[in-house]
Write a structure and sequence with these properties.
- By secondary structure, this protein is mostly beta strands.
- It has 1 helix and 6 strands.
- The chain has one helix at residues 53-56; strands spanning 28-32, 37-41, 44-46, 49-50, 57-63, 66-72.
- Strand 1 and strand 2 form a beta hairpin.
- The N and C termini lie far apart (37 Å).
Amino acid sequence: MTVKLTWTKLDPKPDPQHGKPCERSSHGFSLVQKGSRMILHGGEQVARTPLEPSQATWAADPKGDTWTWRLIDSTNGPHA
């Protein structure tokens, strides 16, 4: 069996109110529901300093060929 993988770079538009997530390391990232949502959670912008819960969780959803970020309130735990 031969498997062919292709990569597509996605560059979601900023959330109209909150912009884009900051650059980070040590985070979790998932593409779910056959490409219908991306979730970015946690991580560090400064080594060994976790992000503030108010900036920890972002989702990006597609509308046609365009993806848009939205900030998820994770101050009481992650949810989407």
